[in-house]
Amino acid sequence: MPVAGDLRLLLRLRNFRRLLYIRLLSQGADGVYQVALAAYVVFSPEKQTSATAIASAMAVLLLPYSLVGPFAGVLLDRWRRRQVFLYGNALRALLAAATAVLMLGPAPDWLFYASALCVTAVNRFVLAGLSAALPRVVDTERLVLANSLSPTAGTLAATAGGGLAFGVRLLGSDSDATVVLLGALLYLCAGLASLGLAPGLLGPDRHPARPRLRTALAETAGELLAAVRHVTAPHRREAAWVLAAMTLMRFCYGALLVLLLMLCRYALSDTPEEGLRLLGSALALSGAGFFTAAVLTPWAAARLGPGRWIVVCSAGATVLEPALGLPFATGPLMAAAFFLGLITQGAKIATDTIVQANVEDDFRGRTFSVYDVLFNTAFVGAAGVAALLLPPDGRSTVLVLLVAAVYGAVTVSLGRFERR
């Protein structure tokens, strides 16, 4: 099988493997940390969580993080990406440990959210740097396969990290702070793994003198505008279209995540612990969908083209999401978790490939910063819409149909562009 042969060759590339180790450890730690936060905020027995509270938490964590994004892109195109992985993960280890300390004491909510915000802000540098560095360790012919393996493996690592967090919490410790400390240890291991790469290997090639902070901030708007012009140039228009499509699909994912959290907490379970176990099952099935997407997408993208594969994914979501979501029953929702994991990750692999193939190396850091800002803003907007539409138990036919309509709009619009 040609794909299997290419995959074996890809895994023989020493620097690709080391970059993959960093991603696996880093995103595994993200999974541990995020599940611990979800358990603390949503599934604590003493807390009566509402959709509005979940949306507020997402806004606190993601909107300021989106504001950091553009500045991260400017700096990623100046700093050595390997150093970003080293120092960024070490800093996240310290910040996660601080979060654990705040969980143990009667700390005010704003201080807890500020600590979590700092971890996610640094995460912005690491994940964007991993995407921007990938073409430096893989040849162009195998970039689609690398985009299938690397980000999907990272997502699976995050899912596995979430499963590990569930296991530690449910089987070994009732303390969310203990789970957060486990995430801190994994962040530290990710930083140490980056020492196996040469400092200049991952680029960028140009090495201007490091600007002062004031100068970098002043240049940010112009640099980002240049990246937007770069992506929207006539011969790169497909990159702009798929970014818009993926942003809308991210909106759908955010709305469905809030719905799932509320259903697991109230409608489908009798206790917070039972709801947490149900959420863990949904995340595991979603991870299986991510894995399936990694296997299926290289084959599908080779035959249809990456853009048309995104159309197929959004069309599948248009049909499956209401069919499996409207019963508001455990079995169909578990099936939906698998299929939406497959659809979302398949579309993301294709989007990453199109953007990387159309964007020059000097612009990749800024472009992926814009990419993440769009993602997070759409995610928070979706949480806000869900907070307005969801009843206390999470059962909302209107929200399910709205998400299906957005998927349908993506299918029609992107399909017309691909035909042209």
Give a structural overview.
By secondary structure, the chain is mostly helical. The chain has one domain: MFS general substrate transporter like domains (Growth Hormone, Chain: A, Up-down Bundle), CATH 1.20.1250.20. It has 14 helices and no strands.
Tags for this model:
single chain, 420 residues, mainly alpha, Growth Hormone, Chain: A, 14 helices, 82% helix, 0% strand
Q: Would you state the CATH class?
A: Mainly Alpha
> Can you say what the CATH homologous superfamily is?
MFS general substrate transporter like domains
The overall pLDDT, averaged over residues, is: 85
Helical fraction equals: over 70%
Beta content: under 5%
Which assembly state applies to the chains in this document?
Answer: single chain
Shape annotation: globular
CATH architecture: Up-down Bundle
Give a quick account of the main beta sheet: strands, pairing sense, barrel closure: none
Enumerate how many helices there are, as a single number.
14
The total tally of domains equals: 1
Radius of gyration: 20 Å
Poorly predicted parts:
none
Number of E-state strands:
0
The ordered H/E elements are HHHHHHHHHHHHHH
CATH topology: Growth Hormone, Chain: A
Structural class: mainly alpha
> What is the end-to-end distance?
33 Å
Task: Give a quick summary of the entry.
The protein has a single domain (2-204, 215-419), classed as MFS general substrate transporter like domains (Growth Hormone, Chain: A), CATH 1.20.1250. The chain contains 14 helices and no strands.
